[in-house]
Amino acid sequence: MHAMQYELTLPADYDMGVIRGRVARIGHLLDDWEGLGLKAYLMRERGVDGSPVNQYGPFYLWNTVEGMNTFLWGGAFQGLASDFGRPVVRQWTGLVHEEGAAADASAAVAVRHRRPVPEGVVLADFMAEEVDATRRLAARDGAVLAAAAVDTSRWELVRFSLWAHREPAAEAAVGEGPGEGEVFQVLHVSQPGRKTLPRGRQW
Q: Pfam families from the xrefs (predicted)?
């Protein structure tokens, strides 16, 4: 499993209806994308759920690097880059993925929590603890799924979760670990390969 995300931070007075309309028009195009486990089309709106910014930030879980590369280099990503400017695309190596207690529900809210991997920790122990924490998160009421991944170039861990309702998502954002997570609205989910995403720890 490979995780990926890019963010478009937009002006404070930007009409986020433009983003909603864009996703409504083109979101279905990845519903059968080869190699894609899941793409959550995410949006943060200034003043909503504590967000200080207007932002579009889709999050991906890939089954194959080939599928990801086809998306990035085959033309699909070029449309966004041409319309908004080319964003930085973050990538993380998969650590763990678990289906949630509400796995069959539609996702309405997402939470992203990023933190550094501390210096001096025993990596095997730290990652095993994160696997356990992600499993506990997925078992909570309202959780659709939870996953964690690591960027070893920055030694940064990202934990991502989808939720059926806003209240448990807000609780998860506060209670996931050091610092608060960021809450996103889910506009659409493309999940052609979700059932084949590897479950559990990824090593």
A: DUF4865
Rg (CA), the chain: 16
Q: How far apart are CA 60 and CA 39, in angstroms?
A: 4
pLDDT tens, per residue, the chain with 203 residues? 999 999 999 999 999 999 999 999 999 999 999 999 999 999 999 999 889 999 999 999 999 999 999 999 999 999 999 999 999 999 999 999 999 999 999 999 999 999 999 999 999 999 999 999 999 999 999 999 999 999 999 999 999 999 999 888 888 888 655 567 999 999 999 999 999 999 999 99
What is the Cα–Cα distance from 41 to 43, expressed in whole angstroms?
7
| Pair of tokens at residue 150 | 């690591």
User: Domain limits at 29?
Assistant: 2-190
* 109 located within any domain: yes
**Overall number of domains in the chain:** 1
CA–CA distance, 175 with 97 (Å, rounded to integer): 19
Has residue 168 been placed in a domain? yes
**pTM recorded for the entire structure:** 0.95
CB 67 within 8 A of CB 73: no
The CATH number for 113's domain is: 3.30.70.100
